[in-house]
Amino acid sequence: MRIGRLAIFLLIALGITLVTCTPMRMGLQEATLEKLLEKQAACDQLRQNGQMSNTRMVECQNNSHALEKAAGEFAVEGSRQTNPANQVFWYSLASTAGWQSRRPQGMADAITYADEGVKICDDNPGLQPGDCAYMYAIPAFVSNASVATLFFDLEHMAGGAAADASMAEKKKALQKLYLFPQPDGMTRIETMALLLRRDGWETLQIALQKIRRLEGLHQDVICALEANQNDIVENLEILHKRAITLPLLPENTDWISAEICRDSSIDPEKRAELKLPAPGADFETLGKEGRDRLMKRVMAHTFCMWDYARENTKTDDCPSD
């Protein structure tokens, strides 16, 4: 999965306009954050490649804690400021640090800090457009990173739980993790796909609209968002492919096509025709037939969200990476 690759690029390339307040302190804090981000980028690469040793895991966890703590400190500093431009500066640092911490609470806080920055930008049209373009962009990056991080953690947990087990036992470990019921009545993997589609892909479309209305040309930010948009579509496809592999035996998937979808959801008529269970079904308490139908719903639901994002993704003339 694409976990998000552009935090340092955005922070450095966009820059932040410093006015009044304490520019030296701002510069020191920005340099400290850049060092933490560099370490986190190395940790992300190890996580994606499955090369995380116990020693490096501790080091990376400490770095994540440091980023999460820094995010809170930056946000407090932002709340103390009276100049809108300085507020945006500190909230941009706070949201970036929380996002890159890869910790659930840190990434949730990043959305809150970004929302604070966005409110300031919306209420102060005279701010530097580049600063606000960055604030608008952050939530979509955070949503994608949070789902990708969870995916890697679940895959690692499944691998550890069934390291010396048979293929059937490994499949059961994956089922237990990905089909675990969530508060919204969906399975965990469906909720992950929903977060990608709604909080990632749809939020990104809104951000692009706002950035294109800002004064000046912000092609760097637009292209960064569009790269993230492609990552989100790719990650939705990965979730769908994982859903297809969850049954103990290979399933016929010829029935999965755009015809079963209505926008990004399963068409209600097709749901009834395929006898797919309603939200709230618990995989662990179902019989074999119920489990089979639940896994079919997961396949269909993840496909519809991926297909919707794929078909509706539009890009500007940005260089491919």
Give a description of the structure.
The model is unreliable at 8-24 (pLDDT under 50). Strand 1 and strand 2 (265-266) form a beta hairpin. The radius of gyration is 21 Å and the shape is globular. The longest helix is centred in the middle third of the chain and has 33 residues, at 129-161. The chain has a two-stranded antiparallel ribbon with strand order 1-2. The chain folds into two domains: 18-127; 130-321, no CATH class. It is mainly alpha-helical and 321 residues long. It is 71% helix and 1% strand.
How are the elements arranged and paired?
Elements: H1 7-14, H2 23-49, H3 54-80, H4 84-100, H5 104-123, H6 129-161, H7 167-178, H8 188-213, H9 219-244, E1 261-262, E2 265-266, H10 268-273, H11 288-312
Antiparallel strand pairs: 1-2
